[in-house]
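In this section we walk through a basic example: taking a raw amino acid sequence and producing a predicted 3D structure, encoded as discrete structure tokens. The instruction is simple. Fold the sequence below.
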Amino acid sequence: MIPVIISGGSGSRLWPLSRQLDPKPFIRLSDGNSLLQNTFIRASLLEDVTAILTVTNEKTHFRMNDEYRQINSNNITCDFILEPFGRNTAPAIAVACLYIAQNYSEDETILILPADHLISDFTAFNLAVAEAKQISQDGYIVTFGITPEYPETGYGYIEANLSKPLKNGFLINRFVEKPNLTRAQEYFNSKHYLWNSGMFCAKVSTFLEQFNLHAEHLIKSSNKCLSHSKVSKINNNTAVHLHKELFLQPEDISIDYALLEKSNKVAVIPCSLGWSDIGSWLSIAQTIPKDKDNNAIIGESVLHNTSDCLIYSTNKIVAGVDINNLIIVDTADAVLVADKNNSQNVKIIFERLKQMRHQTYEVHPTTFRPWGTYTVLEESPFYKIKRIEVKPHSSLSLQMHHHRSEHWIVVDGIATVTRNDETFELKANQSTYIEPEIKHRLENKTTENLILIEVQCGTYLGEDDIIRFADQYGRK
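The resulting token sequence is shown next.
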């Protein structure tokens, strides 16, 4: 079996922790792992897993690779399909099926897993996957229907046909959209409806057959895109960089609309997994242990007469006085205060920031790169100060800037600097100056992290003022 981890979307309802280029799967909860890492761990511990394929945006590839490396103790093969921009689940799954058919086998069973879900009952999950795999061998696409715990309006539902059992599952009558509260209560009371988890299990051949029956243009255009895409190898893992123009051709549609609602070869396994799609701050609050006043707290806080609040801060101490039923989230560059009853509306703020082109919708002050991270400490129209951390045996590209100069001051470690035709080392408390139009490169050839402060000065300080001449990560 090959698990396929689908990582797309921005997690707009979890702003300011989730950003466009630092999305929900990277959020870390109380266990210290990110949602992405926990998804990978669940997948890797299943029986007969030969490889794990991840479909994600190309801008998050190297960070995901780092996250996997931290927890991939069994050295499972990790392949990537890299999207040039976000699309819906149908083209992502179509390309994944085609890739596995071409590089493994059409007889492989695949398990589609969203990267940002929480599952607390591993035993129940393993059992449900085993049951789904059995049903899938008979030519069905098997969905995982979560037994509702309450009338939820934030999830789609699946109506199971209880009169048509299929081993430990059932055929499906229909998929239904997110309901209002009255309809959700009806679904909950009927016992026929399950939450749609967005997880699926099927043979690759079944998916391809159903795509050809119900979404022929989508599968053909996905195949054309895949056949014209660049393939690279990183640490023996394959990365497919989808062709940018051809990836526009498959319809931007969900797998539910494109396939599952049309097919008569779809079944559902009812299960209780301790599942949450972590779709809002309220759902995060439900996963965190509470204090005596029912406050869910991550970080340091001092509270007086405060109850039923979610307080999330990893940077500062939060003080609360005489407050109730609030969400308070503090990050390095933004603070969210919201009524817990309206946590879904955080996405409205995210969309307004996006319309304003405010940087807080897109990135955190700390930005991840293949070679490490940089954090913007201070900036103005004519200067910017960064803290740069370069991982061991990593290197920035050989590059040049037209509009800015750079001063580098090493704080810790040893930097190998290339400046035009000369190469030299800098140790702690040593510095150098890079003028505009000068080719330069920063490397860390040691086994310890390299930390330096960079001061940029110039008339334009945008990240796009960069000409790359050589790059070990294949960036242009």
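Looking at the output, two observations stand out. The radius of gyration is 24 Å. DSSP finds ten helices and 31 strands in the chain. In the next section we compare this with other chains.
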